[in-house]
DNA sequence: CAAAACATTAAAATTTTATTTAACAAATTT
DNA sequence: AAATTTGTTAAATAAAATTTTAATGTTTTG
């Protein structure tokens, strides 16, 4: 069975793409997505823009599944909705700049981590202080409260650092420290 | 029903701890662990060292469950095995320095991301180059191969940057740029 | 070295999460 | 405005992951 040079080329290109698609979707668990969502992103990475039917055909999955997957990808800014006139189908495009995905994702996540934990700490601080300052408590109780208070106090250093890390990513000053091109 | 100052203090301290435990375990999805693993870590965070039976009692779960949870936490360096003589039970201690957990976890993950994707890219490059240099292929094929090649080429910039980010965390030069204490 | 204590693995059960089919809603075109 | 196309939600199913009970292995102690 003879194959033309172009037919061989198609095979090679597909193989090349599959390698990269596999690696991307496998490492995308870091971004908290399932393998199939990862595979969708990686597939879109090699395509211009896609509508839901094209995704469904490419991944051989149902349309509602594509709908939810693409929304998850939009939430973490890895896919953008594109406005294509002419067709009335919604079209989407993968964010191809990994720096942007990185920046957007980790900033969001780390901000959430800081916010939730700081709120909890402030609440906890209030009650721990009450115990620490309560003259009618035993010394043991006040010591225990103080111990936890100090732990939380030192964890604040980390959360503030994380806040500044996010800031340095948002304002891109991180790239002064670590340039994109070395 | 009268409660003594110490009884009230216990309640307050427990409430304070629960706030923080809730926040930590809720945000620990970032570290790719389930809520119950997160809750175990957060619980251990407030205890000195614990053995499996103490964990089981505290979280009201089975022992094998604690065994697997604690192993997961060890894998991401958030829990260390401690050697306690006297008792023959294994004891474990939570890593309380969030900087260390951060550094260890993200370095490992990002290194894995770089390694897997770079390997895939090198493999892909090989086949894409073959197509690009094949004189018998149509121009369209060669162009397509080249297009993908360029995409991968530019993604390498990101992976190399990630590599340097990991390095700066490992050698702690990141803290020259962003000191722990601002 | 046998018995006891503890931890881990294996299998089963439960729960959760992902996916699909089917129904519904929204929008566009005729 | 009716009909058609498209997208999303809801309910049902399937798949995967977590948790438990039961069995096994390992270490320590008497």
From TrEMBL, chains A, B:
It comes from the Bacteria. The keyword Kinase does not apply. Keywords: DNA-binding, Transcription, Transcription regulation. GO terms for molecular function: DNA binding. InterPro entries: HTH-GbsR_regulator, MJ1563, WH-like_DNA-bd_sf, WH_DNA-bd_sf. Belongs to the GbsR family. NCBIfam families: choline_R_CudC (NF047500). This is HTH-type transcriptional regulator. It comes from Virgibacillus alimentarius.
